[in-house]
């Protein structure tokens, strides 16, 4: 009797060592808690297959997947490992509960066995696979690169393809004597070919060259090799595009620099000339005297010159002042005559005659008729002292 109790005690000690053995599923590291394992994104229903795969990896990394696949059953209540099993089972349930949405978590709060919880989620969310398979097939065969890069496009397609592979896995041979026909390998090659064709078909038209080259290969390379070839083509296209952009930017900068040097007015040298030629503003033209850079509202020939106005030709000073000081005579009307001299005509005449010649002209016009006015002006323009030229006057 004493020997049996001693034997049972030694057996319990050996079992108790399981909780201290790092290689045992019953071992819990002191740093592990309910927050050490979370899966993102959480389970919300349609993403069950990707979620279950990620959750399986997390449990396997902590040597706890045997608690959900049925390998480790609950020990009897009088077993020394029962308490250890409860602690590990509770930790697994907590990890799963924190990796599902709040609505799903509320529906599994009363399930106390990790294996039952895993089965419940699988039965609820793995159904209706044919509808999801139909959607995946449609998305895979209609996906286009669009504005995405090659890397992003390949990642999106790979995500859809792997989810489809979970829904329709390649069956393994269940014969007692394993087949030697490599049928499974052939089926896998067919799927890989379909994957490559879908990837190439969705590329943009700028990759027509590399797409044609790959499709002419026999047999087709695997998806990783094709992705590498297309990625090299993308780098070449982007490199050429970058060179063109840099060239255009360089030409634009040169044009802006040329325009800044020639279009700016420095106030000296040829600054005034450059401003006239490169300014986009329309030039002002006076309708009274016909000169540029001012209007009739500010025309000195019509309204009078300032007292201290500096003339370019000093001989014009007395002529203009004598003309503008006569308040009884209109600037464009000759006294005693119906003929009106325009501001432009007056400017041309006043800039080439002296005061005495002007007085003589007035006397001739007073005693002549309208028909003789033109001849008098013509004779005056042929006067030997009227050949001098002056620069433009500017106001």
Characteristics:
395 residues, mainly alpha, 3 domains, elongated
What does this molecule look like?
- The protein is mainly α and 395 residues long.
- It folds into 3 domains: 124 residues; 94 residues, no CATH class; 91 residues, no CATH class.
- Helix content is 55%, strand content 0%.
- It is built from 16 helices and no strands.
- Helix 6 runs antiparallel to helix 7.
- It starts with a helix and ends in a 14-residue tail after the last helix.
Number of helices: 16
**Nearest-angstrom radius of gyration?**
50 Å
Question: What count of structural domains?
Answer: 3
User: What helical percentage do the residues reach?
Assistant: 40-55%
Describe the sheet with the most strands.
none
Distance between the termini: 133 Å
Shape: elongated
| Beta-strand content estimate | under 5%
On the 0 to 100 scale, the average pLDDT is 75
Beta strands, count: 0
Look at the helices and sheets and give the structural class: mainly alpha
Outline the low-pLDDT stretches. Answer: 263-279, 322-340, 369-395
User: How do the helices and strands follow one another from N- to C-terminus?
Assistant: HHHHHHHHHHHHHHHH
């Amino acid at each position: 009797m004493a020997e049996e109790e001693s034997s049972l005690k030694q057996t319990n000690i050996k079992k108790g060592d399981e909780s201290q053995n790092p290689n045992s599923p019953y071992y819990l590291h002191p740093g592990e808690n309910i927050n050490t394992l979370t899966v993102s994104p959480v389970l919300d229903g349609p993403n069950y297959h990707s979620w279950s795969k990620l959750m399986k990896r997390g449990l396997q990394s902590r040597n706890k997947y045997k608690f959900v696949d049925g390998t480790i059953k609950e020990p009897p209540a009088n077993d020394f490992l029962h308490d250890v099993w409860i602690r590990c089972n509770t930790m697994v349930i907590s990890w799963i509960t924190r990796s599902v949405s709040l609505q799903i978590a509320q529906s599994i709060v009363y399930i106390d066995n990790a294996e039952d919880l895993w089965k419940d989620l699988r039965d609820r969310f793995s159904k209706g696979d044919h509808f999801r398979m139909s959607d995946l097939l449609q998305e895979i065969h209609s996906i286009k690169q669009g504005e995405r890069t090659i890397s992003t496009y390949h990642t999106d397609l790979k995500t859809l393809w792997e989810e489809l592979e979970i829904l329709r896995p390649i069956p393994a041979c269940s014969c007692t004597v394993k087949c030697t026909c490599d049928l499974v390998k052939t089926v896998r090659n067919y799927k890989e070919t379909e994957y490559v064709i879908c990837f190439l078909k969705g590329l943009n038209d700028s990759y027509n060259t590399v797409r044609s080259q790959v499709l002419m290969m026999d047999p087709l390379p695997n998806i990783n090799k094709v992705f590498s070839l297309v990625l090299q083509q993308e780098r070449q296209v982007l490199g050429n595009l970058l060179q063109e952009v840099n060239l255009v930017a360089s030409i634009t900068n040169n044009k802006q620099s040329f325009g800044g040097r020639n279009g700016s007015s420095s106030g000296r040298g040829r600054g005034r000339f450059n401003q006239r030629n490169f300014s986009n503003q329309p030039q002002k033209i006076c309708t009274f005297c016909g000169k540029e850079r001012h209007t009739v509202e500010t025309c000195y020939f019509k309204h009078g010159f300032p007292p201290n106005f500096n003339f370019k030709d000093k001989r014009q000073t007395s002529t203009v002042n004598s003309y503008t000081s006569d308040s009884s005579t209109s600037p464009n009307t000759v006294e005693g005559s119906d003929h009106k001299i325009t501001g432009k005509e007056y400017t041309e005449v006043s800039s080439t005659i002296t005061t005495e010649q002007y007085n003589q002209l007035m006397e001739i016009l007073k005693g002549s008729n309208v028909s003789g006015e033109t001849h008098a002006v013509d004779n005056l323009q042929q006067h030997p002292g009227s050949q001098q030229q002056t620069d433009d006057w500017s106001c």
